[in-house]
Amino acid sequence: MRQAAPTPSAEPAHRTVLLHEAVEQLITDPDGVYLDATFGRGGHSRAILERLSARGRLIAIDRDPQAVQAAAQIQDPRFVMVHGPFADFGRVLQQQGVAQADGLLFDLGVSSPQLDQPERGFSFRGDGPLDMRMDTSSGQTVADFLATASVDEIATVLRDYGDERAAVQIAKKIVARRDAGAPLARSGELAALVAGVVKSREPGQDPATRTFQALRIHVNAELAQIDAALSQVLACLKPGGRLAVISFHSLEDARVKRFIQSHARAPAVDRRVPFVPGVTATFVPQLREVARLRPSAAEIGANARARSAILRVAQRV
C-alpha cells in the first residue's frame, strides 16, 4: 500500500551561528553592495540590512526552495533574493549589475531547519524519505544514489566525506539489503543499519553521524561548490572588501584556510633548490587575513550546533 506524502512539519526557530561576529567583520562600507551567498532563514541577511544605509544593497542566494520562500518575508527595496547554488554567485552578481561587491558572506553546510524537518531526510534523529537534497527541485536523492552505487562507490563516499572507519562494512550491508529486495528508502532505516554495524563512537556522537554527513556532502556536491565559489572571490571582491566564511567541519574549513593563505602569504621556499640566475620570484598578496573566530561559550551553551563552527575573514588587498 502506497503511503501518503508526509505533511511538512512546522519549521522550528533557526539560530544563526556567529551572527554578530560575521556581520561586524563583513561590513566596511554601509553604502556598499553585499552578498549573502547562503541565505538559510535570513539571520545574517537581516542583520546586514540593519547595518546598511539607504544606498546599500544586499543580494542573497540559496538553493533551497524553502529558503527562497522565507526570503519573501523581507520587504526591503535594498534586498533581492535569487534561487540557485552559491557557486553561481559570480553570475548572479553580474545579472544584478554588480561588477565587484564590498563583501561576500558564506555560511556553509546544512541549516537547522533542514536538519529539524524529518521529511527532508537530513537527520538520523527522525524518520523521513532518504532525500538530503538542499535543492528539492532537482538532483539525485541519497536513496537514488544508494539504489545503484557499488560497494566501492558507497565506501569511498563514506570514507572520503565522513572519515568513517567502518565504511566498507556499512557499504556491504547497504548493498546486501538492496540485493535482497529491500533498498533503503527512509532515514530511520539507514540510521538503524549503521547502528547495527558501528558499535562504538565518540561520546555523545550517534553512530550514524559520519554516514549521514558523507552522503549529504556527496549528493549536494558541497565540496565542489566551495571550490567553485572560492575560485571567483578575487574577481568579484573590491579592493578593501571582505570575505567571511563560516565552516562547520574540517573538510570545509581546510579549503577556506588554504585559499586565504595561498593568496595572503608567500609560499614557503625550499632553500635546497637552486634559483635560476637572473630570475627573482616575487609574491604579491591579494588577500589579508583579518580574523579567525569561534563561537563563545555562551553561544555554544544556547545552541550546541555552534560548537564546531569557525569564522575566517580576509580582506581584498
Concise overview:
This protein is of the alpha/beta class.
Describe how the helices and strands are arranged.
Elements (H helix, E strand, L loop, with lengths): L18 H8 L6 E4 L6 H9 L5 E6 L2 H7 L7 E5 L5 H7 L5 E7 L4 H5 L25 H7 L2 H12 L4 H13 L7 H11 L11 H11 L2 H9 L2 H4 E11 L2 H15 L22 E7 L3 H6 L7 E7 L1
Helix pairs in contact: 1-2, 7-8, 7-10, 8-9, 11-13
Key descriptive features of the protein:
14 helices, 317 residues, 7-stranded mixed beta sheet, disordered N terminus, alpha/beta, DNA polymerase, domain 1, single chain, 15% strand
Written overview of the protein:
The protein is α/β, with parallel strands linked by helices and 317 residues long. It folds into 2 domains: 19-112 and 223-268 and 282-316, Rossmann fold (3-Layer(aba) Sandwich), CATH 3.40.50.150; 136-219, Orthogonal Bundle (DNA polymerase, domain 1), CATH 1.10.150. Helix content is 39%, strand content 15%. The chain has 14 helices and 7 strands. The chain has helices spanning 19-26, 43-51, 65-71, 89-95, 112-116, 142-148, 151-162, 167-179, 187-197, 209-219, 222-230, 233-236, 250-264, 297-302; strands spanning 33-36, 57-62, 79-83, 101-107, 237-247, 287-293, 310-316. A 7-stranded mixed β-sheet has the order 3-2-1-4-5-7-6, sandwiched between helices. Strand 1 (33-36), helix 2 and strand 2 form a beta-alpha-beta unit. Helix 1 (19-26) crosses helix 2, helix 7 packs antiparallel against helix 8 (167-179) and helix 8 (167-179) crosses helix 9. Mean pLDDT is 91; it is low at 1-12.
